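Q: Could you fold this chain for me?
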Amino acid sequence: MQKIKLNNNVTISQIIHGHWRLDKWDLSKHQLANLINQCIEIGITTFDHADIYGNYTCENIFGEALKTNKNIRNNIQIITKCGVKLAMHKFPDRKINTYDYSYDHIISSVENSLRNFNTDYIDLLLLHRPAPLLNPNEVAKAFNQLINTGKVLSFGVSNFTPYEFSVLQKSTDHKLVTNQIELSPYCLEHFENHNIDFLLKEQIRPMAWSPIAGGKIMNPIDKKSDRIHATLKEIANELNIKNIDTIIYSWLLKHPVGILPIVGSGKISRIKNAVDALNIQLTDEQWYRIYIASTGVDLP
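A: Sure. Below is the predicted structure, expressed as structure tokens.
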């Protein structure tokens, strides 16, 4: 599998394993360590997290698996996110969900993630969502501290618009290396809002979360997902491919912006379906058939 150099500090795998629902996979720490090693064996070395995943539990679950074999950490890259504050029983003083990108919160979030992962550095830290009160100068100050202490090697964002990305980038000396966005044949939002065009112009590779649209494409729930599913099946038959999720990943991988799909499954068979997509070359016409199935409108 191709390795992607984000900057001089971090190189990641072209496909990323996502742990949004890790707490639902019902894996022991040894079973999870085995899954991580299976991913490494097929070329996936990058693992995506966020402090809030599993109501603040998934980072720790992953960290416990890493403790079973100290060599694993040397062979992987860890992505995590911060900035969202959930109102829940663990934080009785919080009345509502909010965002916090103050210097103190970013630093404390990273320190907590380091403890959870049982590591002394994070390969890539992302700001989880844009926020109306985000102060770029506060963020830049935190980034400088984290880089200078070696606790974070690189930075990016998640769910930012092109303008939000540009505002933050102007305030920090550290290049933002990615924008993690929802992207699938079902969700074309970032084609329509010109985020993909912006990232292509800036030569920044986006990460795609929910690439199979939370299962809506695999198990259609409306006319749009019905159209996409039917088209994917047709193309899978044309290419003699068994699994339509492999076609979905190949659709993402074909785009010249260099999309990095995040596979959020705890089953190695489903993860392998994404890796199989690296060996598939859709024609332009096949790619557009999927795009048109999503929009429901022929190209002009």
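A (continued): The chain is about 40% helix and 15% strand.
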